[in-house]
Amino acid sequence: MRRLVGFFSVVLSFALSQAAGAGPPNPVEIIKNFSDFQQIDVVRLLNGDILSERGSLMDFPNGISAQTCFAVPLSAEEAAKRLQLWDPSPHAELKVYAFHPLHMPCELADFQPLDFNNGQKPVRWLVAKMVASTPEKSELNLTRDEAREFAGCLPKRADLPKVSGCWAGLLLSRASAFQQRGLAGVLPYEVAGESVSPAEQLRTMLREQLAVSHEFLPILKKIGLAGNAAEPSLTPFYYWSLFDADYHGTMSLGAVYLLAVGDHFQLVDLEYYVSGNYYTSATLYEVWPVQAGGKSGALVWRGDFFAAPMLRFTKGTERIAYGVLMLQDIKKEIRCIEDEAKTGR
Question: By the 8 A CB rule, do 286 and 257 touch?
């Protein structure tokens, strides 16, 4: 019911402003209408504060979300462009071992930097799980055909160059399908006897956040996450990454979309393939130009949505604890983004 109230408040606010002939609404008021934040002090945000809220508990058993709000001393356009291309790998505290852009169309050479010989325990875990995969059983997010190909590709020992080559082939195949067909080209994971669609996991989570989904309709429609299943009409920044997710080495493929909407910008950072530990994620940004307290900059609202299999076994306090840990990681990442913006890196 609270989500429905939030949705209708957005519609009512817009209708009243149009009826009164009012100018464009203040970005702070817009954020208040669709988000969980009712008190937003732009001056404090421009001075470095970060607002954060755990998302409400979802009916969807695999889903969890969080919201944050912060500001950077950049124009809205520059902040949006930086967010689209942001590389987290220089920040050791984020435990991103590799992050690389992909060409359009992608090619095998894009995955040449993939190297599992970095000595990190989470990466050794990933190599072990890959080597142990069989056509009948795997702890990784694969189709049956991919598991079969892995079993034929890998020796039953940790030959790291061979492991890298096998992963590169899988990632190239999935990235190529996504570049050609968008979310319609994303193969489901065939996990424990069931088929899991990353695209449907994302759509289900967004349907539970009606006010947020309504606010982001301009970009969600263009990338195939709302409305009909038309071909995407935005060209994103494509990437692959290798990182530590809850002490497990994880490979992912992602795309970051950017859309100018009037005087502000919307972005969606979409992980359409994740090797394990969770199924998929989407990070939504809305970036506005602001001035307050003699300072100017970009006001950023951020919403994170994760779908993970272990969440279905959590309830109440335990799920809230997951949300707290998730927010800690998000705020750590935002601090890195803020530091880069302040230093001009």
Answer: no
What are the chain's domains? 2-107+209-343 (3.30.530.20)
Give tens-digit pLDDT for 103-150. Answer: 999 999 999 999 998 889 999 999 888 888 887 788 899 998 898 888
pLDDT of residue 23: 54
User: Cβ of 100: how many Cβ atoms within 10 Å?
Assistant: 16
Q: How confident is the model at residue 153 (pLDDT cuts 50, 70, 90)?
A: confident
SS (H, E, C) the chain: CHHHHHHHHHHHHHHHHHHCCCCCCCHHHHHHHHCCCCCCCHHHHHCCCCEEEECCCCCCCCEEEEEEEEEECCCHHHHHHHHHHCCCCCCHHHCEEEEEECCCCCCHHHHCCCCCCCCCHHHHHHHHHHHHCCCCCCCCCCCHHHHHHHHHHCCCCCCHHHHHHHHHHHHHHHHHHHHHHHHHHCCCEEECCEEECHHHHHHHHHHCCHHHHHHCHHHHHHCCCCCCCCCCCCCCEEEEEEEEECCEEEEEEEEEEEEEECCEEEEEEEEEEECCCCCEEEEEEEEEEEEECCEEEEEEEEEEEEECHHHHHCCHHHHHHHHHHHHHHHHHHHHHHHHHHHHCC
Which pLDDT does position 163 carry in this prediction?
87
Query: Tokens 């809205």, residue?
Result: 76
CA-to-CA dists, residue 219 to 16, 22, 213, 256, angstroms: 24, 25, 10, 11
Residue bearing tokens 């994302």 = 202
Confidence check: pLDDT of 329 > 90: yes
| Residue 238: HSE in the Cβ half-sphere, 13 Å Cα cutoff | 23
